[in-house]
Amino acid sequence: MASRSGATSLLIGGCGIFFDFSRKGMEEVRKILAITKKLAGEFHAPPLMVRDIVTWTEAKIAAFELAGSKRVIEYNSKVIDAEQEILQRRLRERDRVNYLMGQTNQDDVVKQAEHWLQRKTRMYLDGEIERAEKSIAHRRKRIKEEQEAAIKHSEVLAGSSHKVKISSWKRAKKRVKLNLAGWKYLGRAKQGEQWRLAIAVFGTIDVELVNSGKLRGGGSAYWDGHRHLIRIRVGKSMSDKLRTTIRHEVQHFAQDFLGMAVKAIDVGMPSKKIRTPEINQWLKANSSYSSEKELVRKLRSQGITPDGFHALDDIEFYTRLSDSVDEFKESWSSPRNPLNRYDFKERFKIFIGEIEMPRYLMKELNLIGGSKTFWWFKNHAKGKWKKAVKELWKAVS
Potential cystine with 346: which of 105, 304, 342, 368 (Cβ 3.0-4.6 Å)? Predict the structure, then answer.
Protein backbone atom coordinates (compact mmCIF):
# COMPACT_ATOMS: atom_id res chain seq x y z
CA MET A 1 0.00 0.00 0.00
CA ALA A 2 1.52 3.36 -1.07
CA SER A 3 1.50 6.46 1.16
CA ARG A 4 1.36 10.08 0.01
CA SER A 5 5.14 10.39 0.16
CA GLY A 6 5.54 7.45 -2.20
CA ALA A 7 6.64 5.03 0.51
CA THR A 8 5.65 1.37 0.28
CA SER A 9 5.80 -1.39 2.87
CA LEU A 10 6.64 -4.94 1.78
CA LEU A 11 6.26 -8.10 3.84
CA ILE A 12 9.34 -10.32 3.46
CA GLY A 13 9.80 -13.57 5.42
CA GLY A 14 6.99 -12.55 7.78
CA CYS A 15 8.71 -9.25 8.69
CA GLY A 16 7.79 -5.76 7.44
CA ILE A 17 10.61 -4.02 5.53
CA PHE A 18 9.95 -0.38 4.73
CA PHE A 19 10.93 0.86 1.25
CA ASP A 20 10.65 4.54 0.37
CA PHE A 21 10.10 5.05 -3.38
CA SER A 22 10.23 8.84 -3.24
CA ARG A 23 13.17 10.54 -5.01
CA LYS A 24 15.11 10.73 -1.75
CA GLY A 25 14.18 7.16 -0.96
CA MET A 26 15.35 5.89 -4.35
CA GLU A 27 18.72 7.56 -3.83
CA GLU A 28 19.04 5.59 -0.60
CA VAL A 29 18.07 2.37 -2.39
CA ARG A 30 20.81 2.97 -4.99
CA LYS A 31 23.33 3.44 -2.18
CA ILE A 32 22.13 0.21 -0.57
CA LEU A 33 22.45 -1.68 -3.84
CA ALA A 34 26.00 -0.32 -4.19
CA ILE A 35 26.77 -1.68 -0.71
CA THR A 36 25.40 -5.12 -1.52
CA LYS A 37 27.40 -5.18 -4.75
CA LYS A 38 30.55 -4.61 -2.70
CA LEU A 39 29.56 -7.61 -0.59
CA ALA A 40 29.99 -9.86 -3.63
CA GLY A 41 32.46 -12.71 -3.50
CA GLU A 42 32.30 -15.68 -1.19
CA PHE A 43 29.48 -14.85 1.24
CA HIS A 44 30.52 -15.38 4.87
CA ALA A 45 28.56 -16.28 7.99
CA PRO A 46 29.14 -14.63 11.41
CA PRO A 47 32.14 -16.67 12.64
CA LEU A 48 31.39 -16.62 16.37
CA MET A 49 27.84 -17.83 15.81
CA VAL A 50 29.14 -20.68 13.66
CA ARG A 51 31.68 -21.58 16.34
CA ASP A 52 29.09 -21.44 19.14
CA ILE A 53 26.64 -23.71 17.30
CA VAL A 54 29.38 -26.13 16.17
CA THR A 55 30.90 -26.52 19.66
CA TRP A 56 27.46 -27.01 21.26
CA THR A 57 26.48 -29.59 18.63
CA GLU A 58 29.79 -31.43 19.05
CA ALA A 59 29.29 -31.44 22.83
CA LYS A 60 25.74 -32.82 22.53
CA ILE A 61 26.87 -35.55 20.12
CA ALA A 62 29.82 -36.40 22.38
CA ALA A 63 27.48 -36.63 25.40
CA PHE A 64 25.14 -38.92 23.46
CA GLU A 65 27.98 -41.14 22.27
CA LEU A 66 29.62 -41.23 25.71
CA ALA A 67 26.37 -42.36 27.29
CA GLY A 68 26.09 -45.08 24.63
CA SER A 69 29.70 -46.19 25.15
CA LYS A 70 29.14 -46.52 28.89
CA ARG A 71 26.07 -48.68 28.30
CA VAL A 72 27.93 -50.91 25.83
CA ILE A 73 30.88 -51.31 28.22
CA GLU A 74 28.62 -52.13 31.17
CA TYR A 75 26.52 -54.62 29.16
CA ASN A 76 29.49 -56.44 27.63
CA SER A 77 31.28 -56.61 30.99
CA LYS A 78 28.25 -58.36 32.51
CA VAL A 79 28.00 -60.78 29.58
CA ILE A 80 31.72 -61.60 29.86
CA ASP A 81 31.31 -62.41 33.56
CA ALA A 82 28.44 -64.79 32.73
CA GLU A 83 30.34 -66.40 29.84
CA GLN A 84 33.43 -66.83 32.04
CA GLU A 85 31.37 -68.87 34.50
CA ILE A 86 29.99 -71.03 31.67
CA LEU A 87 33.50 -71.44 30.22
CA GLN A 88 34.93 -72.59 33.56
CA ARG A 89 32.08 -75.08 33.95
CA ARG A 90 32.69 -76.49 30.46
CA LEU A 91 36.43 -76.77 31.13
CA ARG A 92 35.75 -78.76 34.30
CA GLU A 93 33.35 -81.05 32.42
CA ARG A 94 35.95 -81.63 29.71
CA ASP A 95 38.62 -82.48 32.30
CA ARG A 96 36.25 -85.02 33.83
CA VAL A 97 35.50 -86.56 30.41
CA ASN A 98 39.22 -86.75 29.61
CA TYR A 99 39.82 -88.54 32.92
CA LEU A 100 37.03 -91.06 32.22
CA MET A 101 38.35 -91.68 28.73
CA GLY A 102 41.76 -92.48 30.19
CA GLN A 103 40.21 -95.05 32.53
CA THR A 104 38.16 -96.85 29.84
CA ASN A 105 39.12 -100.45 28.93
CA GLN A 106 39.12 -100.60 25.11
CA ASP A 107 38.87 -104.44 25.13
CA ASP A 108 35.42 -104.43 26.65
CA VAL A 109 32.66 -103.92 24.05
CA VAL A 110 30.47 -102.03 26.55
CA LYS A 111 33.42 -99.84 27.52
CA GLN A 112 34.08 -99.16 23.85
CA ALA A 113 30.54 -97.76 23.51
CA GLU A 114 31.08 -95.63 26.61
CA HIS A 115 34.38 -94.39 25.14
CA TRP A 116 32.63 -93.42 21.91
CA LEU A 117 29.98 -91.45 23.85
CA GLN A 118 32.67 -89.77 25.93
CA ARG A 119 34.54 -88.78 22.79
CA LYS A 120 31.36 -87.27 21.30
CA THR A 121 30.80 -85.41 24.57
CA ARG A 122 34.34 -84.06 24.49
CA MET A 123 33.91 -82.89 20.88
CA TYR A 124 30.75 -81.06 21.91
CA LEU A 125 32.52 -79.48 24.89
CA ASP A 126 35.49 -78.47 22.71
CA GLY A 127 33.10 -76.64 20.41
CA GLU A 128 31.31 -74.91 23.29
CA ILE A 129 34.62 -73.85 24.84
CA GLU A 130 35.89 -72.46 21.52
CA ARG A 131 32.69 -70.46 20.97
CA ALA A 132 32.82 -69.07 24.52
CA GLU A 133 36.47 -68.05 24.14
CA LYS A 134 35.78 -66.32 20.79
CA SER A 135 32.76 -64.52 22.22
CA ILE A 136 34.73 -63.31 25.23
CA ALA A 137 37.61 -62.14 23.00
CA HIS A 138 35.16 -60.29 20.72
CA ARG A 139 33.44 -58.58 23.64
CA ARG A 140 36.77 -57.56 25.18
CA LYS A 141 37.75 -56.03 21.84
CA ARG A 142 34.43 -54.17 21.71
CA ILE A 143 34.95 -52.89 25.26
CA LYS A 144 38.43 -51.64 24.34
CA GLU A 145 37.07 -49.82 21.29
CA GLU A 146 34.30 -48.21 23.33
CA GLN A 147 36.77 -47.21 26.06
CA GLU A 148 38.96 -45.49 23.45
CA ALA A 149 35.89 -43.77 21.98
CA ALA A 150 34.76 -42.74 25.47
CA ILE A 151 38.13 -41.09 26.09
CA LYS A 152 37.74 -39.03 22.89
CA HIS A 153 34.18 -38.04 23.76
CA SER A 154 35.25 -37.11 27.30
CA GLU A 155 38.01 -34.91 25.89
CA VAL A 156 35.48 -33.10 23.67
CA LEU A 157 33.23 -32.48 26.68
CA ALA A 158 36.13 -31.40 28.88
CA GLY A 159 37.32 -28.88 26.27
CA SER A 160 33.86 -27.52 25.50
CA SER A 161 32.56 -24.24 26.87
CA HIS A 162 29.07 -25.79 26.90
CA LYS A 163 27.98 -27.80 29.91
CA VAL A 164 25.80 -30.65 28.71
CA LYS A 165 24.38 -33.69 30.46
CA ILE A 166 25.80 -37.10 29.51
CA SER A 167 22.68 -38.82 28.27
CA SER A 168 20.85 -40.06 25.20
CA TRP A 169 18.48 -37.70 23.46
CA LYS A 170 16.13 -37.67 20.51
CA ARG A 171 15.83 -33.92 20.30
CA ALA A 172 17.96 -31.15 21.74
CA LYS A 173 17.38 -27.42 21.45
CA LYS A 174 19.47 -24.32 22.12
CA ARG A 175 18.71 -20.62 21.78
CA VAL A 176 21.64 -18.76 20.23
CA LYS A 177 22.05 -15.01 20.69
CA LEU A 178 22.92 -12.85 17.72
CA ASN A 179 26.70 -12.34 17.73
CA LEU A 180 28.14 -10.41 14.80
CA ALA A 181 31.61 -9.81 16.27
CA GLY A 182 34.30 -10.45 13.66
CA TRP A 183 31.79 -10.49 10.81
CA LYS A 184 33.30 -8.94 7.67
CA TYR A 185 30.16 -6.94 6.77
CA LEU A 186 29.84 -5.00 10.04
CA GLY A 187 31.88 -2.04 8.85
CA ARG A 188 30.44 -1.96 5.34
CA ALA A 189 26.72 -1.59 5.95
CA LYS A 190 25.16 1.59 7.29
CA GLN A 191 24.04 0.72 10.82
CA GLY A 192 20.98 2.91 11.09
CA GLU A 193 17.36 2.35 12.02
CA GLN A 194 16.92 -0.53 9.59
CA TRP A 195 20.01 -2.25 11.02
CA ARG A 196 18.59 -1.94 14.55
CA LEU A 197 15.30 -3.40 13.30
CA ALA A 198 17.15 -6.42 11.88
CA ILE A 199 18.94 -6.93 15.22
CA ALA A 200 15.60 -6.77 17.05
CA VAL A 201 13.97 -9.25 14.66
CA PHE A 202 16.93 -11.66 14.58
CA GLY A 203 18.02 -11.14 18.20
CA THR A 204 18.06 -14.90 18.77
CA ILE A 205 17.77 -18.01 16.64
CA ASP A 206 16.97 -21.55 17.72
CA VAL A 207 19.09 -24.58 16.89
CA GLU A 208 17.45 -28.01 17.10
CA LEU A 209 19.24 -31.35 16.85
CA VAL A 210 17.27 -34.43 15.85
CA ASN A 211 18.38 -38.06 15.74
CA SER A 212 16.76 -41.47 15.45
CA GLY A 213 18.37 -42.72 18.67
CA LYS A 214 21.36 -44.37 16.99
CA LEU A 215 22.94 -41.48 15.07
CA ARG A 216 23.06 -43.72 12.01
CA GLY A 217 22.71 -42.86 8.34
CA GLY A 218 23.24 -39.55 6.63
CA GLY A 219 22.61 -36.16 8.13
CA SER A 220 20.84 -33.07 6.84
CA ALA A 221 20.05 -29.53 7.93
CA TYR A 222 18.00 -26.52 6.92
CA TRP A 223 17.33 -22.92 7.92
CA ASP A 224 13.70 -22.01 8.57
CA GLY A 225 13.56 -18.26 8.01
CA HIS A 226 9.99 -17.91 9.29
CA ARG A 227 10.65 -19.62 12.63
CA HIS A 228 14.29 -18.43 12.88
CA LEU A 229 15.33 -22.05 13.36
CA ILE A 230 18.25 -24.20 12.20
CA ARG A 231 17.24 -27.86 12.34
CA ILE A 232 20.03 -30.44 12.08
CA ARG A 233 19.25 -34.12 11.59
CA VAL A 234 22.41 -35.71 12.91
CA GLY A 235 23.90 -38.74 11.14
CA LYS A 236 27.13 -40.73 11.25
CA SER A 237 28.17 -39.71 7.76
CA MET A 238 28.02 -36.00 8.57
CA SER A 239 30.47 -36.14 11.49
CA ASP A 240 33.37 -34.98 9.30
CA LYS A 241 31.21 -32.32 7.62
CA LEU A 242 29.50 -30.96 10.71
CA ARG A 243 31.20 -27.55 10.61
CA THR A 244 30.51 -27.17 6.88
CA THR A 245 26.85 -28.15 7.33
CA ILE A 246 26.31 -25.67 10.17
CA ARG A 247 28.22 -22.89 8.41
CA HIS A 248 26.02 -23.46 5.34
CA GLU A 249 22.81 -22.92 7.33
CA VAL A 250 24.17 -19.95 9.30
CA GLN A 251 25.01 -18.40 5.92
CA HIS A 252 21.32 -18.63 5.01
CA PHE A 253 20.45 -16.91 8.30
CA ALA A 254 23.05 -14.23 7.48
CA GLN A 255 21.48 -13.70 4.06
CA ASP A 256 18.10 -13.04 5.69
CA PHE A 257 19.59 -10.81 8.40
CA LEU A 258 21.73 -8.72 6.07
CA GLY A 259 18.91 -8.53 3.55
CA MET A 260 16.74 -6.88 6.18
CA ALA A 261 19.59 -4.77 7.59
CA VAL A 262 20.39 -3.15 4.21
CA LYS A 263 16.87 -3.44 2.78
CA ALA A 264 17.82 -5.68 -0.14
CA ILE A 265 15.99 -8.88 -1.03
CA ASP A 266 18.83 -10.52 -2.93
CA VAL A 267 21.78 -10.30 -0.51
CA GLY A 268 24.04 -13.31 -0.88
CA MET A 269 22.80 -14.09 -4.39
CA PRO A 270 24.85 -13.99 -7.60
CA SER A 271 24.52 -11.11 -10.05
CA LYS A 272 21.38 -11.03 -12.18
CA LYS A 273 23.43 -11.76 -15.31
CA ILE A 274 24.24 -15.30 -14.18
CA ARG A 275 21.13 -16.25 -12.22
CA THR A 276 18.89 -19.21 -13.05
CA PRO A 277 15.58 -17.95 -11.62
CA GLU A 278 13.50 -20.72 -13.20
CA ILE A 279 15.25 -23.38 -11.07
CA ASN A 280 14.80 -23.74 -7.32
CA GLN A 281 15.24 -26.54 -4.79
CA TRP A 282 11.50 -26.76 -4.02
CA LEU A 283 10.43 -27.97 -7.48
CA LYS A 284 8.34 -31.14 -7.22
CA ALA A 285 7.36 -33.59 -9.96
CA ASN A 286 4.04 -34.28 -8.18
CA SER A 287 3.17 -30.61 -7.76
CA SER A 288 -0.48 -29.61 -8.01
CA TYR A 289 0.56 -26.89 -10.48
CA SER A 290 0.74 -28.10 -14.07
CA SER A 291 3.33 -25.44 -15.01
CA GLU A 292 5.67 -26.69 -12.26
CA LYS A 293 5.20 -30.31 -13.36
CA GLU A 294 6.03 -29.35 -16.91
CA LEU A 295 9.13 -27.45 -15.79
CA VAL A 296 10.33 -30.43 -13.73
CA ARG A 297 9.82 -32.75 -16.73
CA LYS A 298 11.78 -30.34 -18.92
CA LEU A 299 14.65 -30.08 -16.41
CA ARG A 300 14.77 -33.84 -15.83
CA SER A 301 14.93 -34.39 -19.61
CA GLN A 302 18.06 -32.20 -19.54
CA GLY A 303 19.58 -34.48 -16.91
CA ILE A 304 19.00 -32.17 -13.94
CA THR A 305 18.15 -34.11 -10.78
CA PRO A 306 16.86 -32.78 -7.41
CA ASP A 307 20.50 -32.26 -6.34
CA GLY A 308 20.84 -30.08 -9.43
CA PHE A 309 17.70 -28.14 -8.45
CA HIS A 310 19.43 -27.36 -5.13
CA ALA A 311 22.82 -26.53 -6.66
CA LEU A 312 21.32 -24.23 -9.32
CA ASP A 313 18.98 -22.42 -6.92
CA ASP A 314 20.26 -18.83 -6.81
CA ILE A 315 19.93 -18.59 -3.03
CA GLU A 316 22.28 -21.59 -2.73
CA PHE A 317 25.03 -20.21 -5.00
CA TYR A 318 27.32 -18.79 -2.32
CA THR A 319 26.51 -21.44 0.28
CA ARG A 320 27.37 -24.24 -2.19
CA LEU A 321 30.46 -22.29 -3.22
CA SER A 322 31.59 -22.13 0.42
CA ASP A 323 30.89 -25.86 0.74
CA SER A 324 33.15 -26.40 -2.28
CA VAL A 325 35.90 -24.28 -0.71
CA ASP A 326 35.75 -26.45 2.43
CA GLU A 327 35.67 -29.62 0.33
CA PHE A 328 38.75 -28.62 -1.67
CA LYS A 329 40.72 -27.48 1.38
CA GLU A 330 39.86 -30.51 3.52
CA SER A 331 39.25 -33.50 1.23
CA TRP A 332 41.04 -32.65 -1.98
CA SER A 333 44.17 -31.44 -0.18
CA SER A 334 44.28 -34.38 2.24
CA PRO A 335 47.41 -36.60 2.08
CA ARG A 336 45.07 -39.61 1.86
CA ASN A 337 43.40 -38.33 -1.29
CA PRO A 338 44.54 -40.29 -4.38
CA LEU A 339 44.51 -37.00 -6.31
CA ASN A 340 47.62 -35.86 -4.43
CA ARG A 341 49.67 -37.55 -7.16
CA TYR A 342 48.71 -34.51 -9.26
CA ASP A 343 50.02 -30.99 -8.66
CA PHE A 344 47.82 -28.25 -7.21
CA LYS A 345 46.72 -26.70 -10.50
CA GLU A 346 45.80 -30.08 -12.00
CA ARG A 347 43.76 -30.96 -8.92
CA PHE A 348 42.04 -27.60 -9.13
CA LYS A 349 41.17 -28.15 -12.81
CA ILE A 350 39.83 -31.62 -12.06
CA PHE A 351 37.77 -30.23 -9.18
CA ILE A 352 36.13 -27.53 -11.32
CA GLY A 353 35.56 -29.97 -14.19
CA GLU A 354 37.93 -28.29 -16.63
CA ILE A 355 39.83 -31.52 -17.22
CA GLU A 356 38.34 -34.98 -16.94
CA MET A 357 39.04 -37.06 -13.88
CA PRO A 358 40.54 -40.52 -14.56
CA ARG A 359 37.75 -43.11 -14.54
CA TYR A 360 39.33 -45.29 -11.85
CA LEU A 361 39.46 -42.27 -9.53
CA MET A 362 35.85 -41.35 -10.31
CA LYS A 363 34.87 -44.84 -9.13
CA GLU A 364 37.22 -44.74 -6.14
CA LEU A 365 36.03 -41.32 -4.97
CA ASN A 366 32.39 -41.92 -5.93
CA LEU A 367 32.30 -38.72 -7.97
CA ILE A 368 30.74 -37.81 -11.30
CA GLY A 369 33.86 -35.82 -12.17
CA GLY A 370 35.27 -33.22 -9.79
CA SER A 371 32.98 -31.27 -7.49
CA LYS A 372 29.28 -32.03 -7.97
CA THR A 373 28.43 -28.36 -7.51
CA PHE A 374 30.89 -27.27 -10.19
CA TRP A 375 29.64 -30.06 -12.44
CA TRP A 376 26.12 -28.64 -12.27
CA PHE A 377 27.39 -25.11 -12.87
CA LYS A 378 29.59 -26.07 -15.82
CA ASN A 379 26.92 -28.10 -17.57
CA HIS A 380 23.82 -26.03 -16.81
CA ALA A 381 24.88 -22.51 -15.72
CA LYS A 382 28.10 -21.42 -17.42
CA GLY A 383 27.99 -17.93 -15.93
CA LYS A 384 27.79 -19.33 -12.40
CA TRP A 385 30.63 -21.71 -13.18
CA LYS A 386 32.96 -18.89 -14.30
CA LYS A 387 32.13 -16.82 -11.21
CA ALA A 388 32.53 -19.82 -8.89
CA VAL A 389 35.90 -20.75 -10.44
CA LYS A 390 37.15 -17.22 -9.85
CA GLU A 391 36.00 -17.15 -6.21
CA LEU A 392 37.30 -20.66 -5.47
CA TRP A 393 40.73 -19.79 -6.84
CA LYS A 394 40.86 -16.67 -4.63
CA ALA A 395 39.90 -18.76 -1.59
CA VAL A 396 42.30 -21.70 -2.00
CA SER A 397 45.34 -20.41 -3.89
Answer: 342
Instruction: Give the whole-angstrom CA distance, residue 395 versus residue 397.
Output: 6
Burial of 223 per CB tally in 10 Å (0-12, 13-18, 19+): buried
Torsion angle, alpha carbons of 304, 310, 313, 314, to 10: -130
Distance CA 326, CA 298 (A): 32
- Domain ranges across the chain: 65-148, 269-397
Reduced 3-state DSSP string for 311-375: HHCHHHHHHHHHHHHHHHHHCCCCCCCHHHHCCHHHHHHHHHCCCCCCHHHHHHHCCCCCCHHHH
Of 176, 175, 149, nearest to 63 (Cα)? 149
The percent of the chain in helix, strand and coil, each rounded to the nearest 5, is 60, 10, 30
Cβ atoms 372, 311 nearer than 8 A: yes
CA torsion angle 348 352 355 357 (round to 10): 90
Query: What number is the average pLDDT over the span 200-213?
Result: 87
DSSP β-bridge partners for residue 15: 12
d(Cα 282, Cα 27) in Å, to the nearest integer? Answer: 35
Which range has highest mean pLDDT (156-170, 207-221, 332-346)?
Answer: 156-170
State the pTM of this model.
Answer: 0.69
Terminus-to-terminus CA distance in the chain, angstroms?
50
Between 247 and 262, the more confident residue is 247
**Which neighbouring-strand residues pair with 27?**
none
pLDDT tens-digit readout, 101-157: 776 655 665 566 677 777 888 888 899 999 999 999 999 999 999 999 999 999 999
83 vs 214: CA distance, rounded Å: 27
